[in-house]
Each structure stands twice: as structure tokens, then as C-alpha cells.
Specification:
By secondary structure, this protein is mainly alpha-helical. Among the domains are: 243 residues, no CATH class; 216 residues, no CATH class. The protein is built from 36 helices and 2 strands. The chain has a two-stranded antiparallel ribbon with strand order 1-2. Strand 1 and strand 2 form a beta hairpin. The longest helix has 32 residues. The termini are far apart.
């Protein structure tokens, strides 16, 4: 179709322009242009972020047209879209009334039309099929409408800041329509749950005066809230967390897109593929290796799961793995991407900004949980392969190791080295983007794909759309919570409810994050959980003797790790759904299996902040307080105890020790022993270890089964 052809050309042009803009911003301060002229979109932080959001919106809606993302499906998530339709209409109506009261009826009508196009149409489309072609072409109009609030922001920048407390009808119109446009992108690419959450917090800020104490607050008018969302310095749409998307995520998504286009991911897969040997457990080992390797250059759990599953599916089948087990192992291996340095996902960069700490600290803290998670998958795989007598896998023809296969690993190593030497993360990643085509020339398999560099940049912008839009409206959540003081009210109520008990607080935050993660991306889960629960946990941890710095770092890593677990925790487990699409199995059953494979991963999170010794599992909190030598000794003892505990839980999980099938009572005993070893309680560790060894001896002698 001719229209689609032209839209595709426009999409590629805007996506490449967006990628080039982000790359140029890094070098702009070192060019003569920066000394000769003051250009807002290149020099001012808020306008740089506004430009970033504009490209997300423009690319997002053009992509929605091309990919047919103009409708919400009639599934379990449709009621959430329906809720969004009603919840978002209330502030939309108030914004329209504000414009009408100022004498601008056409602005009021415009606000309602944008709401209908962004939220109403995609929600009604599944039940009113005649809307389908209309809804699709409306996405093109929305791509155009994204220009207006952006240009208005650039043109009126200084005046907007001065008018933030008393915004005009035009200010409210532009601010609220940009918010609705972001709702529309997230609704189409991620789902309705996160915009529903944002709408609820906005309504709380408006109608808080209707609630009893301690949740009561005087309430805010819609113009005041829109001023905080769009107009003031560090406004919610262009604030700290949006800055994370602009400063870090955009560059990592471009790097991921570029490496994929150049064939680096295929080369890395072949490196691990070449390691497949005759052992029946080899394919599971390779899946974990691929998860770690791909995590170094991707950072997307669902995407890595799909890649690992599609690459190894036939070999899993040849080895005799049931599809459900193979999918569960693949989902966990893919989720490793979210906690594998150097990318680590968007949460790590939000932590950098919120806590004002070096990125290398987070890298160090992430390594032990990542290694333990990987080892827990491997232990499950090894025990399962032996227990069920899986077949040895023949070496794959033509998959012998070549030196070229090491090329992709050079880029993560370079990024980490530069960060360690003191360069900013963005500088390191931009240099990796520049160097990647040079490295591609070193291999015949990647050299021929140099011509695909523009497509790689486009792919990077495509990856950015759902992530960047989600991060931006997560910033709105943060702003609305702070404006109303909800975080303080919630913390006080939680502290009183739990009676100052740290263990109950940890379990509450753990459950809260997992439930929240069922519907919203890990970024929003972390932002909300850190705002509402982190202050209480830190306060309680300090009260039991954990130094404040160690408590703060461990608490935020606990919330980071727990938010990540949502990717493999049913019912909404993105990695499990990705595995389901590859293995053609029920996604809920795969989600349950993915949760049970590497079961210790849930206990690791709880142990981070259980005690002062527990924080040593992350190395950095204990080293900063105790010094390197003492800190490493404590960290080593904690990691060893966790590894032994993982072994016992894996035995319980598989249900076999060697060739012996265990009774349910013995499995429960092994599970308890393993849990007591992972939890950082010295007395219980000392009791559990000899008890576990004794139990294994009795099982081996067939006295206990």
C-alpha cells in the first residue's frame, strides 16, 4: 500500500534522526557550536529531555501504525483498559473545564479529542470492529499531535517555568495532552496497568480531601498538577527518572539494536553453541551461558528468553527435556539479562540518580546475586538431567569454536573498564557504539552486515519506545506521590502496622513488589516500592544495628532484585510468555515452572537486608563499612552458605538425589535446610549444615528417602 510505504520511510527518517540527536548531544559540548550559540534543545537539560520524549512519542505512534498496535485485545487485561478509560477521563474533563472557564472552548474540545484518540478508541476497538481502520489511522494523527506540546515547551520554556504555579489554558492543554499521548504509547506497547496506576495517583492528588486521616490531604486543582507535570523546572515529564532514560537507556538500546544488526548476538550465541558437548546437561548449561552473555549486550529479559529458546529448542527436545522444563530453564536464563552487568536494565541507572552513587557500586552489588541465580539454574539443570536420564547431545555440526566468537565480548569488557577508570556510563556506551562497526570488520560473519548500521539505530529507537515511555510516566508517579506526601503517610502507617518488625517489613515489601510487578514494568515497580517501602525498611534496619549506608544500599538492591523477579513470576511473567511463544505451551504453566526452576532466587532477595551479615551477600555494603579485607571475608562466608543452601533446595525441587527418588517429607526437609542456610542467621546456619550433610548420607545409604 502506497500510504504505508511513505509512512515507513517517514518512520525510518524520524527514528534515525532521533538516534543521531542522542549521539550528537554527547559530543555537542566539545564542538565550536556550543561556544558560539545557546541552543535550548542541545544545551538545556529540560529541553533535552523534552526532545527525548518527543522522539519516543513520534517513533512510537508511527511504529504503532506500522505494526498494527492500535487496539487493546479482549483478554484479561481489557478490564484494566476499561478502567483506564474512566479514570483518565476525570482529570481530562477537569482540564477541559479549566480551558473552557478561561474562554477557550476549542482547547477544551481538543483535550477531549486527544483523550478519545489515545485511550477511548483502542479500548472500544475490540468490541466495535468498525472502528478498526479508524483507530489505526488515528495513530498517524497522534504522531503529528506529539509535535505541538513539544514545540510549545521549546518555544515557551522560560515563561512556562515562571507560570508553573498559575498556568494558562494553553499550558494546561499542552501539558495534559502530552501526558495522554504517553498514556497512549504505554497502553499500546506495554499495557494498560501502568497508566491506570498513574491515573489513580493523579486522582488521589485531586481528591485527597475526601479521604480520612492519615490519607487526607487538602487536594490540588488540575492546573496546579499539570504545572508540576509539564511546566516547572524538573517537571514530572522531564524529571530525574526521564533523565535516566535520556542519559543511559537510549544509548544502551541503540547499542543493543546496533549489535543485533551487525550480527554480534548471533556470534555470541555461536560461541556458547560451540560448547555443547556430549553431556545430557550441556544444553541447559549453554542456555545459562547465553543468558549471561546476551545480558551483557541486551538487558531485555523477554527478548533474551525468546532468543535462547528459539536457538536451543530443538536441542532441548533432542536431549529429552519436556517442553515445560526447557521453557522454564530458558525463561530463567533470559531473565539473567536484567541483573547482568554492564547493562543491568533501567532500575540500576535510577538507583545511580536517586542514591547519588557510582555505577560501579551497583555492578559490584549485582554480581553475587547474578552468579547465585545462574548457579541455581545450573544446579537444577544438572540434577534434573541426571535424575531423569536425559540423552547425551551430539556435537552440532559446523559449530566448532572460532576466535571470531570472542569479538562480541570485547564491548562489555570495554564498557566496564571505562566505567572503572572513571568515565561516565554514557561516554563508555557511546564509544562502544562507535567501536562496534570497527570490531565488526574483524569477522567475515559480521563484516558483510556493516551496511545494516542505519537499521541497527532504527531498531534501537524501536526498543526505546516502550522502555522510555514507561520510565517517563514512572516519573509522573514519583512526582504525584511526593506532591501529596503519600510516601510519608504510607511509611508511617506501614511502620505502625508492622510494629517496627524488620522481617515483617521485608516480607511485606517483597509481596508488594511481586504483586505490583504483575501489572507494571520493573522500573515502575521499583520506583513505587522504593518511595513507599524503602524508608521504613531502612529505618527498621538501622534500629537493629545495620549501619545506615549498608542498610540503604541493601534495601534498594533488594527492591531492584524483587522487581526483576516479576519477569518470571506468574501470572504476568514476561519472560515466561516469551518462552511460551517459542515452545508453544500454556504461558501460565510455563510461568509456574519458571518460578519453581531456580527456586532459591526468591530467598536470595529476602536475605539481602535480613541482617548486617546478610548485606555482605552484596559485597559493597559490608566493604564500605568494614573495609576490604574484613568485608570480603564476611561476604565469602555468606556466599558459601548461600551456595550450599542452593544445593539442598535444588535437590528438594527436583525430587531426586542421584538416582533416588525422594519422598515428600524428605523434600520438605531438604527445602527447610536449604532455606536456613541461605538466610543470614549464623546459629541456624551452623545447625542446618551438619543436619543437611547427615540427611544426604542417610539418603545415599537408602535409610532416608
Amino acid at each position: 500500500m502506497k500510504v504505508e510505504k511513505y509512512i515507513r520511510i517517514l518512520f525510518y527518517a524520524i527514528a534515525i534522526l532521533g538516534a543521531l540527536y542522542h549521539l550528537y548531544v554527547v559530543v555537542h559540548p566539545y564542538t565550536p557550536l556550543s561556544y558560539m550559540y545557546r541552543i535550548g534543545v542541545l544545551d538545556l537539560t529540560q529541553l533535552q529531555r523534552a526532545t527525548h520524549v518527543f522522539f519516543i512519542l513520534a517513533v512510537g505512534y508511527l511504529l504503532a501504525f506500522l505494526e498494527g498496535r492500535h487496539s487493546v485485545s479482549l483478554g484479561l487485561r481489557w478490564p484494566f483498559a476499561l478502567a483506564l478509560m474512566f479514570l483518565s477521563f476525570i482529570p481530562t474533563y477537569l482540564a477541559a473545564v479549566f480551558a473552557a472557564d478561561k474562554g477557550y472552548m476549542w482547547l477544551a474540545a481538543y483535550i477531549i479529542i486527544v483523550w478519545a484518540a489515545t485511550v477511548l478508541l483502542p479500548t472500544l476497538n475490540p468490541i466495535v470492529k468498525v472502528l478498526d481502520p479508524i483507530s489505526r489511522y488515528v495513530t498517524l494523527i497522534l504522531a503529528l499531535l506529539a509535535v505541538f506540546p513539544y514545540v510549545y515547551q521549546v518555544w515557551e520554556y522560560e515563561e512556562l517555568i515562571y507560570r508553573a504555579v498559575v498556568p494558562t489554558a494553553y499550558d494546561v492543554t499542552m501539558g495534559w495532552t502530552m501526558t495522554l499521548l504517553l498514556f497512549g504509547v504505554v497502553l499500546r506497547f506495554v499495557g494498560p496497568e501502568m497508566p491506570v496506576l498513574v491515573s489513580m495517583f493523579i486522582l488521589y492528588d485531586i481528591y485527597g480531601y475526601l479521604l480520612p486521616k492519615p490519607w487526607f490531604h487538602p487536594g490540588f486543582d488540575i492546573d496546579t498538577l499539570v504545572g508540576k507535570i509539564y511546566s516547572e523546572t524538573e517537571a514530572a515529564l522531564f524529571g530525574l527518572i526521564t533523565g535516566v532514560s535520556f542519559k543511559y537507556i537510549a544509548y544502551f538500546t541503540m547499542l543493543a539494536g546496533l549489535l543485533s544488526a551487525l550480527g554480534f548476538s548471533d556470534l555470541m550465541a555461536k560461541a556458547f553453541f560451540s560448547l555443547i558437548g556430549r553431556s545430557s546437561a550441556s544444553v541447559g548449561r549453554v542456555s545459562v551461558g547465553m543468558g549471561v552473555g546476551m545480558g551483557m549486550i541486551s538487558g531485555s529479559g523477554a527478548a533474551d528468553t525468546a532468543f535462547i529458546g528459539s536457538t536451543l529448542r530443538d536441542i532441548f527436545k533432542a536431549a529429552g527435556y519436556p517442553a515445560l522444563i526447557a521453557a522454564g530453564i530458558s525463561a530463567n536464563a533470559g531473565t539473567l539479562a536484567l541483573i547482568t552487568p554492564p547493562i543491568l536494565g533501567s532500575i540500576a541507572f535510577i538507583m545511580v540518580e536517586i542514591l547519588n552513587i557510582p555505577y560501579m557500586w551497583i555492578v559490584v552489588m549485582a554480581l553475587p546475586p547474578m552468579a547465585l541465580y545462574a548457579i541455581s539454574i545450573l544446579m537444577y539443570n544438572e540434577l534434573y538431567a541426571r535424575a531423569y536420564n536425559l540423552k547425551p547431545v551430539d556435537a552440532v555440526p559446523g559449530r566448532r569454536f572460532k576466535p571470531d566468537y570472542l569479538i562480541p565480548f570485547a564491548l562489555p569488557a570495554m564498557i566496564l573498564t571505562m566505567i572503572f577508570l572513571g568515565y561516565t556510563v554514557r561516554t563508555a556506551v557511546v564509544l562502544a557504539i562507535i567501536v562496534s562497526p570497527v570490531l565488526a570488520l574483524l569477522s567475515g560473519e559480521t563484516r558483510r552486515r556493516i551496511k545494516d548500521i542505519p537499521m541497527g539505530l532504527v531498531e534501537g529507537m524501536k526498543i526505546l519506545v516502550p522502555v522510555g515511555a514507561s520510565i517517563t510516566i514512572a516519573n509522573v508517579i514519583m512526582a504525584m506521590v511526593v506532591v501529596s506526601g503519600l510516601h510519608q503517610k504510607f511509611s508511617l502507617a506501614l511502620f505502625n502496622m508492622l510494629g517496627g518488625n524488620l522481617i515483617l517489613a521485608i516480607l511485606f515489601a517483597f509481596t508488594f513488589s511481586l504483586i505490583l510487578g504483575m501489572g507494571v514494568p520493573p522500573t515502575a515497580t521499583y520506583v513505587l516500592a522504593s518511595l513507599l517501602t524503602a524508608p521504613v525498611i531502612i529505618k527498621m534496619a538501622v534500629a537493629i544495628g545495620i549501619p545506615e549506608q549498608a542498610a540503604t544500599l541493601a534495601t534498594h538492591m533488594f527492591l531492584f532484585y524483587t522487581a526483576m523477579l516479576a519477569d518470571v513470576t506468574p501470572p504476568v511473567a514476561l519472560s515466561a510468555f516469551a518462552a511460551a511463544s517459542v515452545f508453544k505451551e500454556n504461558p501460565i504453566l510455563i510461568g509456574i515452572k519458571a518460578a519453581s526452576v531456580a527456586l532459591p532466587k526468591y530467598i536470595y532477595a529476602i536475605s539481602f537486608i535480613w541482617s548486617y551479615w546478610g548485606t555482605s551477600l552484596l559485597i559493597m555494603p559490608i566493604v564500605l563499612v568494614e573495609g576490604v579485607s574484613t568485608g570480603l571475608i564476611l561476604a565469602s562466608s555468606r556466599i558459601i552458605a548461600a551456595l550450599i543452601g542452593t544445593f539442598f533446595i535444588s535437590i528438594a525441587n527436583v525430587g531426586y538425589f542421584g538416582s533416588q527418588r525422594l519422598t515428600m517429607l524428605t523434600r520438605i526437609l531438604m527445602l527447610v535446610i536449604g532455606t536456613l542456610l541461605i538466610l543470614p542467621i549464623g546459629t541456624l546456619n551452623i545447625i542446618a549444615l551438619p543436619g543437611g550433610i547427615s540427611a544426604l548420607i542417610l539418603v545415599h545409604k537408602r535409610i532416608l528417602r
